[in-house]
């Protein structure tokens, strides 16, 4: 059966992925999801069959056919050289396509990374997302992983509903693609943060610039503040939605994440159009009622707001 997972796009090339029919598992689903994200500019179709005559027209075969991306051959299909864990189809696909998908997602997130960082993130994804699937499909471990939800869809089918396997496969694959994409972005963000946090040393006046609001700064900043109270970070500043800038107050500790080391002045609470006159910052645009978040049109404006908040707090 042919399963389209993207709408027809004028001028695009159709890319056929072949995998087996019948019962499906996280192994081939995630493998197909990796390929779908990698070839997202093409018109992707999944062919589910075990008939060699049907599968011979596919561009790539996953978990079927005994080829490069199958692992059911006698003795399997290789293992990771550094740790010896055998590949399933998912791991084989990630081995050959993962580094390029990592690069593509980093580019989409406007993260500039070195080849060394790229390789490090590629291996972290393998460790956190892919290896648990390979272990499960090779019968080594059944520990819960990010894609364990696949079994829920399988368990919902009775023997009489086997003809529905293809429909359920398609629906589950679409979910798997979204979960994989989110999982990749989450790991990339976290590992990028871990590798790049020497920027803390370059922070000035207790203000740390980060690339975006979703940049995972909190754990690293709080650890830094605990170890270096004399040069603690009080605010993180980042580009916001409409070419403006925002600042968020750093909490005093991980147990008090809803509090602030230094809040914005209470007279700013909830102010918008009249905030410039109240704050003395000409391009200030907003301050949250709970005094942990503020915005300005420029980076210099939001930095000025943070400095004013610091001076006001220190006078108390």
Q: What would your notes on this structure say?
A:
There is one protein chain. This protein has helices spanning 26-38, 52-55, 89-108, 115-137, 150-155, 165-196, 218-227, 275-279, 299-314, and strands at residues 2-4, 14-19, 43-48, 60-62, 207-209, 235-239, 245-249, 284-287, 293-296. With 316 residues, it is α/β, with parallel strands linked by helices. It folds into 2 domains: 2-195, no CATH class; 203-314, no CATH class. Strand 2 (14-19), helix 1 (26-38) and strand 3 (43-48) form a beta-alpha-beta unit. Helix 4 packs antiparallel against helix 6 (165-196). The chain is elongated.
Task: Give a quick set of tags describing it.
316 residues; alpha/beta; 2 domains; 5-stranded mixed beta sheet; 4-stranded mixed beta sheet
């Amino acid at each position: 059966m042919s399963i389209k997972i993207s709408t027809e796009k004028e001028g695009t090339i159709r890319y056929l992925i072949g995998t087996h029919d019948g019962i499906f598992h996280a192994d081939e689903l995630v493998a197909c999801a990796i390929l779908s994200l990698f070839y997202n500019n093409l018109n992707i179709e999944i062919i589910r069959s075990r008939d060699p005559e049907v599968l011979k027209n596919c561009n790539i075969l996953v978990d079927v056919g005994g080829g490069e991306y199958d692992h059911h051959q006698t003795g399997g299909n290789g293992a990771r050289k550094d740790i010896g864990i055998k590949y399933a189809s998912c791991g084989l696909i990630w081995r050959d396509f993962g580094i390029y998908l990592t690069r593509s997602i980093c580019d989409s997130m406007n993260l500039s990374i070195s080849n060394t960082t790229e390789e490090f993130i590629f291996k972290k994804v393998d460790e956190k997302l892919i290896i648990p699937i390979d272990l499960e499909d090779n019968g080594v471990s059944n520990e819960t992983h990010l894609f364990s939800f696949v079994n829920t869809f399988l368990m919902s089918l009775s023997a009489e509903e086997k003809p529905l396997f293809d429909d359920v496969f398609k629906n589950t694959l679409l979910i798997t693609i979204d979960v994989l994409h989110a999982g990749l972005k989450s790991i990339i963000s976290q590992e990028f943060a871990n590798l790049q946090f020497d920027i803390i040393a370059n922070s000035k006046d207790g203000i740390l610039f980060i690339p975006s609001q979703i940049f995972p700064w909190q754990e690293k900043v709080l650890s830094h503040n605990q170890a270096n109270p004399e040069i603690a970070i009080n605010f993180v500043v980042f580009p916001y939605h409409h070419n403006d800038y925002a600042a968020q107050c750093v909490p005093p500790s991980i147990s008090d994440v809803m509090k602030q080391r230094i809040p914005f002045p209470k007279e700013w609470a909830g102010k918008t159009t009249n905030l410039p006159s109240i704050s003395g910052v000409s391009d200030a645009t907003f301050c949250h009622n709970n005094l942990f978040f503020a915005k300005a049109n420029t980076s210099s404006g939001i930095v000025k707001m943070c400095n004013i908040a610091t001076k006001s707090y220190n006078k108390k």
